[in-house]
Amino acid sequence: MDFDYVPFGNAFVEIKECADPKNDYSCWKRKCGLGATPPIPSDCFTGPINCQHGSGECYGNLVEVCVKNMTNNNPWKYMPFVDCFEAHEPGAGSKAHMEKCAQQYNLNPAVITSCQSGSSGKTLMAVAARATVMVK
Fold it and tell me: Which helix (H) or strand (E) holds 49?
């Protein structure tokens, strides 16, 4: 069985062609997704990301794409971390909780933070955005 976890959900990339008040997931998917009519906007995967549940979800998505990448996309290695990180307990999804889960699964929290706050995290989120919007 093939398994690929893409931590992006109903997030979308804010693009100029979908300026407020229509800058939403539906507009982004229509302009940038599977079956979009060319020309495709140049900012489809480079603009700011807007997460359905706010900045906390965006932080979590970044952490999870970084961990997925750190573990060479091996779900046996990254999914236990994701399960811990998203646990329904006080502090879940926070930096402190990320550090706790990272240590529990022998991942370096400093490397996760560096990825999450740097250009590699942004690149990985663009990959996740593209994978999400290209699904029917």
Answer: strand 49-50
